[in-house]
Amino acid sequence: MAKYFDVHPENPQRRTITGVAESIRSGALVAYPTDSCYALGCQLGSRDGIDRIRSIRNLDDRHHFTLVCQNFAQLGQFVQVDNDVFRAIKAATPGSYTFILPATKEVPRQLLHPKKKTVGVRIPDHTVTQALLAELGEPLLSSTLLLPDEEEPLTQGWEIKERLDHVVDIVLDSGDCGTEPTTVIDFSGAEVEVVRRGAGDVTRFE
């Protein structure tokens, strides 16, 4: 059964956040809130976590996983960013965007798009997520908590606990965080491409 933690959205209990981070380092799969939907997250190098996320969401190997980063300095360790892209991403973060970029060698091979060798990265604007990332000290490997054959992500912590009780280890609940996923911007090609219109304003990238 999944452990359930109800945390304050603006002042999350430090002991709880520390405990959740320790569990992630030990291989736990967590459902956690972000500034756009709940997400599934695990430690960066956890092959078991990746397999469990793929199983829960019924994903194939073309799915772009996202590295949820605490800040721009951390993001820069995992993706290749030229000056123009740097300025564009810097102006839009933290926020409800996922950026697809060529990965560096710091990214485990199993996370990469099989042909493009790219990965998704984002810096969320959410107090609880930021507290967890600060405690973890590295990006959280993540995917939107959208179940197969459902049009909208789950938004209530109690419902996530109820429905995923036997497939996740932890549910971190800080209240409703909406159903609109991130806006996805692909910087890996010759032209900037808006892959998905979501919570982030796309006009700055068009």
Task: Give an overview in words.
This protein has 206 residues and is of the alpha/beta class. The model has no long low-confidence stretch (mean pLDDT 93). The chain has helices at 14-25, 47-57, 72-75, 83-92, 127-136, 157-163; strands at residues 3-6, 30-33, 38-43, 66-68, 97-102, 118-122, 140-144, 170-173, 183-186, 193-196. Helix 1 (14-25) packs across helix 5 (127-136). The radius of gyration is 16 Å and the shape is globular. The chain has a ten-stranded mixed sheet, sandwiched between helices. Helix content is 26%, strand content 22%. It contains six helices and ten strands. A hairpin with a 4-residue loop joins strand 2 (30-33) and strand 3.
What's the SSE blueprint?
Elements: E1 3-6, H1 14-25, E2 30-33, E3 38-43, H2 47-57, E4 66-68, H3 72-75, H4 83-92, E5 97-102, E6 118-122, H5 127-136, E7 140-144, H6 157-163, E8 170-173, E9 183-186, E10 193-196
Parallel strand pairs: 1-8, 2-8, 4-6, 5-9
Antiparallel strand pairs: 2-3, 3-7, 4-7, 5-6, 9-10
Helix pairs in contact: 1-5
- Molecular shape: globular
Helix-strand category? alpha/beta
Strand segment tally: 10
Radius of gyration, in Å, reads 16 Å
Order of helices and strands: EHEEHEHHEEHEHEEE
| Strand order in space, largest sheet | 1-8-2-3-7-4-6-5-9-10
Largest sheet: 10 strands, mixed
Question: Count of helices?
Answer: 6
Cα distance, first to last residue?
45 Å
Question: Beta fraction of the residues?
Answer: 15-25%
Q: What is the overall pLDDT average?
A: 93
Uncertain regions: pLDDT < 50 for 5+ in a row? Answer: none
In helices, the fraction of residues equals 25-40%
